[in-house]
Amino acid sequence: MEQSKHRDKEIKRMNMGLLALAGLSFLVAVWTAVSNQLKGGTDDLFLIFVCLLLALLFAINPLIWAKQNGLFTAGADEEEPAPAHEIEEHHGGGNRENIIIWGGLLALTAIEVVLAYIHLHAALMLTILMLLSIVKAAMIVAYFMHLKFERLSLVMTIVPTLIVLFLLFGIFFPDSRRAHDLRPAMEVQQQSEEHESSAGEEEK
Amino acid sequence: MAEAKAVSLTEEWGGGTFPYRVSHRKLGMWLFIMSDSLTFGALLVTYAYSRLSSPVWPTPFKFHPSVTFSTVMTLVLLSSSLTMVFAVAAAKKRDKKKARLWILATIFFGAAFILLHSYEWHHLIVDEGLTPFKLPDEWAHQWPGASPLFGSAFFGITGLHMFHVFTGLIYLGVIAARIRKFTADDVEVSGLYWHFVDLVWMFVFPLIYLMSVDFTP
Questions:
Q1: Sign, CA torsion A47/A48/A51/A56
Q2: How many angstroms away from the CA of A195 is the closest CA of chain B?
Q3: How do residues B73-110 score in pLDDT, each as one tens digit?
Q4: What's the DSSP call for residue A182?
Q5: Is the N or the C terminus of chain A less surrounded, counting Cβ atoms within 10 Å?
Q6: Are the CB atoms for B78 and A106 separated by under 8 Å?
Q7: 0.80 exceeded by the pTM?
Q8: What is the ipTM for the molecules in this complex?
Q9: A148-174 average pLDDT score
Q10: Residue A149 class from Cβ within 10 Å (0-12 exposed, 13-18 middle, 19+ buried)?
Q11: Strand runs (DSSP E) across chain B, as ranges?
């Protein structure tokens, strides 16, 4: 009894610390946004993004703990319709469901190919394509790879890890624009002239 | 109540049980998939980086043959994923004969993918003259100052993907040939690998092909 009380206290203290760190990261994000007003472009966006991500990471543990102890029952039922659904079809989708998913994937691919032939701005095009691809990947992982019907612990091990790691790749992109600007002036000038003359179509 | 929860957590993660409720093979395959997706992620990010930092990047893929072929390849790969799902479902029902047939169908689609892809590579290398380190003269003329990294990005990413498909074919071939010795779980684990190969193509196809479509008639 004594021990469990001690442990409860310890857990509470740890959670408070994590919450404080989450708050701090959030404050840094807000401060970046307010003080700089996004003048740094991609760099600022990236910093804000990373801060928010850190805040989320720090906040996850206290939130789960709070939920387990029933601290916010009001928020609980809007977050947790999934398990009931999960138990219902625990053994995964039937063949019919998989065929529907396959059809959906084909339809999304068709949309992508059609999009490629409408003249869109490269950045917009890239955004749409990446969004569609992520939806497709999620469909494959959830249904074909059966992850939707696995235990939450496995999902929580795989998905957040990958998301965070892929976001960390984003650290390179501000630099790629800068590399462009840092080229010797002659070369850039020459090439940008040539580039403009070639109708300036797709640069991205 | 908090105490009971804490105790059950310790029991669950303290050893002797399966906290993920999957077999060790499946968990191993998931971990492999995670590391492998980072490999592909790094390659795609490198491609995006070089494309962004180059003043000019060639966009040479005509509707025919490149885009038609890659679209058909996407269709073939997606269908192979569906047959693999059926194979896993059949193996779970202990219908090993049916499972083997569906795996063979998957192998057929996978082989079709490799054939189509090699035809496309052949077209690019022989007809167009693209190599990993040099753009064809025609393209260099059409896109002055274009980065020669195009070839290495294209061949590196699609080549690694094709290697994965090829490895998957061998893997599935072994499973199909000796299906009596393998359990339903083994079939499912091979299915995970195959779906992963499909999943990677879902990113390679738009980023490599659709973002490089040639609009000039």
A1: negative
A2: 7
A3: 999 999 999 999 999 999 999 999 999 999 999 999 99
A4: T
A5: N
A6: yes
A7: no
A8: 0.89
A9: 84
A10: middle
A11: none
